[in-house]
């Protein structure tokens, strides 16, 4: 990477709770006092895959901090990649126009590749089925906001754990906490990939893999639902085999602890019935709101913090 050690391409770059929670402190501060710390800066949002929350929250975050935004919401079609331009060339050119590049792409690992040649920070807003680090930061921030702690909680990650990039990034961050207990609930064909479980084994974190969710519901503090992602499967037939594997409704919520929370990175399809949206345990819309403050913190830290050094 040229002159740039501030890209955020993987949650694994954050190796301690203090490093992670620095984002929480900045997010809390920015929420209460809007500092135009990025005035005169330009943020590029280059999205090769669909997005609602991630792109809009990054753009809103940039604007709230006083920056200007240049954006491609459908870069797969509307950028020169459709003419065959390499990501390296795109990044080299974008480096002349922007102070940070927020990128979502369909290819695993491409943000790390971009960060190696970029002279401005690359922020991974989701690379294929690999990672989505800023989502994971806002997820842990949301958990800590509700419980006042993360240590000791039992967290169930449910759904498509094979292709779900949010849960991959979340595993890295949760593994930084003490006595965290993890349950991975998925169809046998959609289990958490070994490379993400390896970090848990190395850090001696308890995790259990299972297909059934119902029996576990009374034990869980955080129920983290994910979408079965149609776009990641080879065929519609294969997708339909797994679609609707898990659906949380009123009856399932009745089995949960009173102070548990239900999270989801969104968009939901059928994983969570709208009937429970008013339940005090439904936390997914607040979670999405917290994303704005975390993305303000991510941009501010990437662009203005001279001291941060990361693995990339
Ligand atoms: C997720 C994503 O894009 O990985 N959404 C998000 O960023 N909030 C999850 C999903 O698309 O299912």
What does this structure look like?
By secondary structure, this protein is an alpha/beta fold. It has eleven helices and nine strands. A five-stranded parallel sheet has the order 7-6-5-8-9, with helices on one face. α5 links the parallel β3 and β4. The C terminus is likely disordered. The chain binds N-carbamoyl-L-aspartate (NCD). The site of N-carbamoyl-L-aspartate has 11 residues, from α2 and α7. The site of N-carbamoyl-L-aspartate (NCD) has 11 residues, from α2 and α7.
List keywords for this structure.
312 residues; alpha/beta; five-stranded parallel β-sheet; four-stranded parallel β-sheet; 11 helices; 37% helix; disordered C terminus; binds N-carbamoyl-L-aspartate
Low-confidence runs (pLDDT<50, min 5 residues)? 306-312
> Structural class from helices and strands?
alpha/beta
Instruction: List SSEs in N-to-C order.
Output: HEHEHHEHEHEHEHEEHHEH
Mean pLDDT: 94
Number of helices: 11
Largest sheet: 5 strands, parallel
User: What radius of gyration results from the CA coordinates?
Assistant: 19 Å
Total number of beta strands: 9
Strand adjacency order, main sheet: 7-6-5-8-9
Shape: globular
How much of the sequence is in beta strands?
A: 5-15%
Distance between the termini: 7 Å
**Fraction of residues in helices?**
25-40%
Enumerate the distinct ligands: N-carbamoyl-L-aspartate
């Amino acid at each position: 990477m040229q002159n740039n050690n501030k890209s955020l391409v993987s949650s694994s770059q954050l190796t301690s709770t203090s490093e992670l929670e620095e984002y929480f402190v900045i997010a809390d501060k920015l929420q209460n006092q809007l500092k135009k710390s990025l005035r005169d800066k330009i943020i590029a949002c280059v999205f090769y895959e669909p997005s609602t929350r991630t792109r809009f929250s990054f753009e809103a975050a940039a604007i709230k901090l006083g920056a200007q935004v240049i954006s491609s919401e459908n870069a797969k079609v509307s950028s020169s990649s459709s003419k065959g331009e390499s990501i390296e060339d795109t990044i080299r050119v974008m480096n002349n126009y922007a102070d940070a590049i927020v990128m979502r792409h369909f290819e695993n690992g491409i943000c790390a590749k971009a960060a190696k040649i970029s002279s401005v920070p690359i922020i991974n807003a989701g690379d294929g089925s690999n990672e989505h680090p800023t989502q994971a930061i806002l997820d842990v921030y949301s958990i800590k906001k509700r419980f006042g702690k993360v240590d000791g909680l039992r967290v169930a990650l449910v759904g498509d754990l094979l292709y779900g990039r949010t849960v991959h990034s979340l595993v890295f961050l949760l593994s930084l906490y003490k006595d965290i207990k993890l349950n991975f609930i998925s169809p046998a064909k959609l289990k958490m990939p070994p490379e993400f479980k390896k970090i848990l084994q190395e850090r001696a974190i308890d995790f259990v893999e299972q297909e059934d969710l119902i029996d576990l519901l009374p034990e869980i503090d955080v129920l983290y639902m994910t979408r079965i992602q149609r776009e990641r499967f080879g065929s519609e037939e294969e997708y339909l085999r797994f679609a609707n594997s898990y659906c949380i409704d009123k009856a399932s919520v009745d089995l949960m602890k009173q102070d548990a929370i239900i999270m989801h990175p969104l968009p939901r399809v059928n994983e969570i019935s709208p009937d429970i949206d008013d339940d005090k345990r439904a936390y997914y819309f607040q979670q999405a709101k917290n994303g704005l403050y975390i993305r303000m913190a991510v941009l501010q830290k990437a662009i203005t913090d001279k001291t941060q050094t990361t693995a990339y």
